[in-house]
């Protein structure tokens, strides 16, 4: 397989991941504080369950969603803590999304330099992943709820 073909696949993966990230952030930013207040206990319960089951991909996505919900509520410290925990779960896609989430939170609280640093980290993560040729985790996408149920079910069976 040629170098251009690998570049094309990598570019396509990055474009798909970017679209999913924008959808995730868009859903979070569109949330109403009342909705986030309702979701936080549910997300904490799910987080505990995934930790007990040692389901790291779902734990990482739940941390990311919990961080977004906390940000909607203005709980900056909790939002940052959850996004950092998500970034440390060693799933390339989740880590990339977590750094973008951190950038949005940092920017929202008036720290644009820190936001730029988070974006640079996100780009480094995705660049390193592209250079390695390692695939993105379908399980992480399935856990996020961003995939149709049929695809999510198939990824769980694999």
Describe this protein with a few key phrases:
single chain, 0% strand, flat, 8 helices, 158 residues
Structure description:
- The radius of gyration is 16 Å and the shape is flat.
- Helices cover 83% and strands 0% of the residues.
- The longest helix has 28 residues, at 3-30.
- It has helices at 3-30, 33-52, 56-72, 76-87, 92-108, 112-132, 138-144, 149-157.
pLDDT < 50 runs, ≥5 residues: none
Q: Strand portion, in percent?
A: under 5%
Percentage of helical residues?
over 70%
Largest beta sheet, briefly?
Answer: none
- Average pLDDT over all residues: 76
Distance between the termini: 26 Å
Structural class: mainly alpha
Radius of gyration, CA atoms, in whole angstroms:
16 Å
Net shape: flat
The number of helices is 8
Tell me how many strands there are: 0
SSE series: HHHHHHHH
Q: Would you spell out the secondary-structure blueprint of this structure?
A:
Layout: H1 3-30, H2 33-52, H3 56-72, H4 76-87, H5 92-108, H6 112-132, H7 138-144, H8 149-157
Helix pairs in contact: 2-3, 3-4, 3-5, 3-7, 4-5, 5-6, 7-8
Short description:
The chain has 158 residues and is an all-alpha fold.
